[in-house]
Amino acid sequence: MGVTVVKCGGAVPAEPVCADLAGLAGRVVLVHGGAVEVDRLAGDLGVRARTLVSPSGVTSRHTDPAMLDVVTLALAGRVKPRLLRALAAADVPAVGLTGLDGGLLRARRKTAQRTVRDGRTVIVRDDHSGRLTGVRPRPLRVLLDAGFVPVVSPPALGEDGTPVNVDADRVAAAVAAALGAERLVLLTTAPGVLRDAADEGTVLDRCALDPAGPVPYAATGGMHRKLIASREALLAGVPRVSVADGRVPRPVTAALDGAGTTLEIT
């Protein structure tokens, strides 16, 4: 059995996911975000949470310097330790990493980007987010070969040596590609990709993605990013990608057995 990369969203219950990884140590990488915890910590610290909206309608977190600190603290200091505790409780040997460790994740910061505010397009220059440019898989391979589960999150290392906030779904896709993984599983708080976002009964068994066009079904927010990440993974050679429900008792096993939505390139 080859490597599987599992992405666990911040709203997905950690304990069932971690318990389900028992027996997969050395063959699975767990990637996580933590938007809920980032927002909570920002409120605790009095840091204003803002959203950037691109002219095409894609939303992202406005990561100014204060918010970059919040993101780093929340992911590395709250979310990751909680996952590591849950893995330890399930007797799963795990090691926590951010993209800064060993230069694991490399990214290019967007020094200027357009956002729509009050109907006007403006330029934002203080955002410390960006796009992944590379994954250094050696630290992950060393840990996998030693029987550990690497637990990976943003931030990434920027070209100037400073942290860059990057999307965790796309991190999972890039890690899967870099490792030559057999499977990428994106766990979320929905049963899969929905034809109608307001109706969980409209889950798709399969979802075809145009290699260059817009994502289907008017997906927005987190699901839009998951479909983009899925397409990137498939185009990079990952043979099987699925979006599945992280709320069920054994979410990873269920996804590997075919639950959720299987993504494919048209």
Automatic annotation (TrEMBL):
Any idea where the Aspartate/glutamate/uridylate kinase domain is? 3-244
What's a single GO BP term from this record?
L-arginine biosynthetic process
- Give the highest taxon in the source lineage: Bacteria
Question: What InterPro entries would the database entry show?
Answer: AceGlu_kinase-like_sf, AcgluKinase_fam, Asp/Glu/Uridylate_kinase, Glu/AcGlu_kinase
GO cellular component term of the entry, any: cytoplasm
Keyword set includes Transferase: yes
Task: Supply one GO molecular-function term.
Answer: acetylglutamate kinase activity
Q: Per UniProt, which keywords does this protein have?
A: Amino-acid biosynthesis, ATP-binding, Kinase, Nucleotide-binding, Transferase
- One Pfam family of this protein, by short name? AA_kinase
Pathway membership, UniProt? Amino-acid biosynthesis
Return the protein name.
[LysW]-aminoadipate kinase
Q: Which organism is it from?
A: Actinomadura darangshiensis
